[in-house]
Amino acid sequence: MDTKQKEAKYLMQTYKRFDIAVRKAKGQYIWDENGKKYTDFFSGISVCNLGHCNPVVNSAIKKQLDIFLHVSNLYYAKPQADLAKELVTKSFGKGAKVFLANSGAEANEGAIKMARKFGKQHKTKNNQDKYEIITFKNSFHGRTLATLSATGQEKFHKIITPLVEKFVFADFNNINSVKKLINEKTVAVMIEPFQCEGGMIPADKDFLKQLRLLCDKNNLLLIFDEIQCGMGRTGKFLAWQHYGVKPDIFTLAKSLANGLPLGAVVADKKIANLFVFGDHGSTFGGNPVSCAAGLAVLKLMNPKLLKEVSNKAKYFVKKLNELKKKYPSIKEIRNIGLLVGVELDLTAKDIVEFCLNKGLLINSPKEHVLRFLPSFVITKKDMDFAIKILGDALKCQTSKK
Question: What pTM value is reported for the model?
Fold first, then answer.
């Protein structure tokens, strides 16, 4: 019985998998069980940003494995404290604090809980709790009940109704839409600076600035979900650092430990001490091995690396624009750094499957949108290969129209 047969027999069928069973991965490449090599421009949904099996990260993991794997959050653990210090230093600075979780959904759950507690401390004029959170249409915040309720896509709500109360959805990049939803029970606004699952849409700079001013005026928390767009992918450590707009809370996960499960809620000094004993917790949150990996990742996240990300992004987008001139089926190219979306007038899944067959791994979050999330170790040769395959795919699919 091969891997695919075992999967079908023993695993719940919750994923629509491509016809590839992975045997090994290294750097920007993956090999399947038949020995076929793939150039990975997806990085496990922006998880292995530093490449598969990064030697520095793997070394930190192996070292921690021989010290201890788990000791419970009832005791102090140096890897947690070291990681939290580095996260604070690279983001808000003095006075900020971190809660460590296992995933992006859990990190967003933590942020939502913080907002709800903030609402209990800053009540309405009638002494009622504030609890409503504004999120955005086409957003995606996770797969738990609360984070799916916060997600602004109807297709995710069908099997979980009734939804967790109370999330309301504004139009992305439309400040008037946000203003109309604010009432005396509103406590926070939660937003992705770059909507990835929603179609690879960046927030407008002026919109985020107005959103910050609106939150300040109404004493609302501003929460940035940086789970997919953070950790250097945009050419800065955090996406919000491009905008000059600082949130009150931001969340991280995915590439924080370059492949191991780890999430984080980072709160600025204004609310850093909002959670107290008993308010929140996690058995595995801040696992020492994951934290060791995360610390190694953060130490590699230096200005030189971030500049390389920006330079590689410029080269890749330049090549995409050359394709756009050749193939009118490309309607728009959207990116910040190596967070790249291409909107088509073709069905994106056909392009994805063509590329897969030719040894290139990409993805489609929406029917007409391609998503490129290559690791930071990609080379010009890799990018030229990707452009060649994408061009062949466009040529093939265009001829069928």
Answer: 0.96
